[in-house]
Each structure stands twice: as structure tokens, then as C-alpha cells.
Fold:
Amino acid sequence: MKTLMLLLTLLFVSGLNYAQSDFEIKQNFLAKYKQIEVTIEYADDEAKCNTIAGQIEKLKEEFASHSSLLDNALYPDDFNSAFVKLIKKLSIRQTDVSQIGDLKVQVGELNDQLLKLNQENSELMHQVQTLRRSATKNAKTIDSLKYLVKRLSAKLKERDELVMSMVDSLFEQITYIPASVNDYESNGVFKKIASTNFFENIKRSVNDNMKFMRVTILTADDLNEIRGQQKELSSRWQKVGPSLAKVYLQSKQQATEVNQINNLFNEWEQAINDQIWERVYSLFEKKNIHLLQFKSGEEFTNSISSFVQDEIKNYGVKGINESDKTYTMFVDSLWFKEVEPKWLPYLLNDKMISEANKDSLDSRIKEWKEKVSPSQFPLWIIYVVVGIIMVTVLSIVIFRKPVKAENDTQEAG
Amino acid sequence: MKSLMLTAAGILLFSLFGCSSLKLTPANFSWAIESVLPVNQDGVVTDKRYALSFNAKALFFAEKGDSTVFVDEELHIIKNEKGYYFITSKSFSGVYVFQESDGALALTNKIAFEQKLSNPAFNARSPWIELVEGDSKYLLDNKGLKGN
Structure:
């Protein structure tokens, strides 16, 4: 900007010494005109716009005596129409500046709230980490921890909403830029807004959410809720992020920032998946069921299937009681009580496992069940057999009574 | 015979009137301001505003005896109300006056100066063309300097 001003001044000064020909008068006028145009492009507040309005008036007065020359020289414009254009440009800029002023206030306020929330969240995060590490895990500590986790989760959500409000409000402003404002102008104009670091805030938001998952122990419902948040934030970012980067960042930075944030959202999604698999794995570990580690639906299916297969194959090898105990622990305590009702629905819904995987696991469990307690005759057969036996017995009893009565009668006679 | 001659004279007179070109007058061809135009690598000068272009190599040859010394040069061009083109440049020995002619600019006059022009510029000062050279100013038309 300074270099440009210097060049234009030099041009003007050099023009002064040789301002003898009409051509040079025209060139001087055009140089000063261009200088004002550039100043308009960089104006970012009302005061500067007012100063520029004064400069326009001054230029008009300075060249008023050459108006008839300039009427011809500025073809297809003339002296007056050239100033009409300049004033119109200034007017458009004044509207933008006013909108930018409002936006700056709004973004400033959001930014202040954001800073406060970030601080609170950092403190909460620290407290959660401290409590988790605490050697004294009594009921009071656990309750405090639960309370803190809940509070931290709420605060993180609040902060995320705030960041997205900033993103949305900045994105709305893009649609207000008049068609006449080109990329060059909008980049210059929105520099100050970019300095609020809202791209950094988005990154921080995602990083904090990932950190939150690391420091807390989350249930299936919690993780499902976090996944919902991740999807929503990611989707909103995809809609507006690249456009915002185009307007608010220098071209070199655009691709880097957008890629970094895209990568962070992908990392977050992966972190949620990893957490889910870790939580499911830990369910079995806690019950002393040692499965092969899994990080995907296929691996999960293979791990469970492999374990069940081994149990079926080795049923009774370590003793029937032991095998039955393992079965009960796995199937009754874990599979039907925890995994199937609490985790499988989310795994299916989020396409972490397929229906085919689930069917395969169901059939494995059924197979194991068959091994442990082979299926008995259908009950109705038992009833029929019991019925037949009862009828037979009754028949025998009934048959016997009349024969004895005849013998008694014969003996009496 | 007399009637024959009268008829012939009438036909001749009629033809003369018929053949005379139609003139729209007065007409003003002047440019309000000079054009300062660079010579491109092919020796061509182009003015977008007036949709004018011509090859200036011959002019440089006439002025400097070398048709290749036009690189990085600029020509000052202006047109007066009669439609004559006045062309000069830095280090030229004078002003060349041209007229449009059958797909060319034909030289009609060269207004010579004692000293080579160091920083010439044209102004339209109807009906004259004013040549500004430093502190000196000269009024020109297609015939030469005013007063000459």
C-alpha cells in the first residue's frame, strides 16, 4: 500500500514539473483519480470514507478549469461522469464499511465469549484429568468427576455452537458483498475480521473435543451423542468453510487452513470410532475375556467369531464347568446384556458393522449355545409321551379294579 | 447543328455537376488531446481510442536513417480539424504531417526545427496544433509554423 502511494505520488510530482501539455494534464488527473480509487478500496471505517469524500471534492475543484479538456480526454466518460462513478464507488464502500463495522462488533463479542469459554473448558479439562489421576477414588471423587465431565461436555457443546455461530455470521456477510466488490477488495476489507482467529478457534474446538474423549470414560450413548455433534459440525464446516477461507484468507493460506481443518474433522471421526472399539474391547477385558484387538467391523466380527469358534472347538477341554462359565460370562453377562442392547444398535446405525457381520455373530453365538446346551426334544413330544404313560398307567389301574371285585364276590358265595 | 451543340453543352454541364463530389462542410476531425503511443516490436503503432494503426518503420528510417531504431520509442500523434496527422517523437528533428491516403498515411509536410526535440508534446488549439517543447510553444498547421 505504502509503495503504491509512493509511486503514485512520484508520478504526480513528475507530472507537476512537466504539466504543460494537455496530455499531461489528463495523465495527472487520471493518476490522482486512481489514487482515490485505491484509497476507497482500503477504507475500512466511516472516518476514512469521509476523508475520501473531501479528497474527491478537492480533485474536482483542482481540475475544474480543465473540465472541457477532460470532457474530451476521458472518453467514453467525461469530467462529471468520472466523478459520479467515483462517488458511487465511495457510497458502496460506505455501506460495506457500515456492515463490516456491525460485523466486527458482533464477531468481537462472540470472540470474547469464546475466549471465556475456552478458559473455562481448559480449567474443567484440567480438573477432570486431575481427578482421574487421583489415587483416592472414593464415592465423593467419583461423583465430582461425573459432575465435572457433565459440565465439561455441556461447555464444549456451548463453545462449539458459538464457534459455528461466528462461522455462520461471517458466512452471511459474504452474501451481502455487492457484485461490484471484487476479490481484491474483499480480501483487503476483511483482514481485520480474519485477525479474530476464528479458523484457529475451529481447530481448537475440534482438538478439545478429541481431548475430551481421551480424558473421560464415555458410554455408548455419550459416544453416539458426540458422533452426532461431530457430524453436524463437520457438515456445517463443509458448507461454509472453504468459501470463508476464500474470502478471509490470503490465497497461499487458503488450501492449508481448509486442509488442516478437514483433516482434524476426519481425525475426530476416527477418534470416535477408535473410542467405540476400545470401549467395547474393554467390556470383555474387564470380564477376563481376552479377544484379539479390533479396530473395524470386520476385525470385530473376526475377533468374536474366532473366540467363539475356539470355545466351541475346545468345549470341555478345560472342564465342562469352566467352559460353561466362560459361556455364561460371554453370552449372558456381556453379549446379551451389554453388547447387543447398548453397542450393536449404534455400530449398525453408524455403519461400523454391517448386517451381514451381525448375522454372522448371531449364528456363531447360536452355534455355541447349541454346543453348551444341545437342544432337547420339543416339549409337545414330551407332553405326548407323558400323556401316553399316564393313560397307560390309568388304564392298568382301571382294568385291575373290576377283576379283584369279581374274585371277592366269588369267595363270599 | 446549333441545337446539337447546345445539347452537347447541356450534357457536358450536366455531367460536370453530376460528377462533382458531395461535400459535407464544415467538418472537424480534430482530436481533443494527443495520443502518446508506444511502437511495438513489429514497428506498429496502435491507438485503441481512435481505432488507428500504422507501421512506423518508414518514419524512423526517414528521421534516423535506420528503420530498426523504433524499439522502446513513443510517438506523439494528434489530428487537426482539417484531418491532418501531426507526428513527432523525442529526438526527432521536426514534426511530420500526414494525410490519409488509400490504406496509408502519406507525408504532406515536414516542419523542421533547428534543434532536435527533447520532450515534445501536442495540444489542440484549434485551428492550430500547439507544439510544446520545454518552455517554447509553437503553433502549427499542415502548411508549417504559424507566421511562416
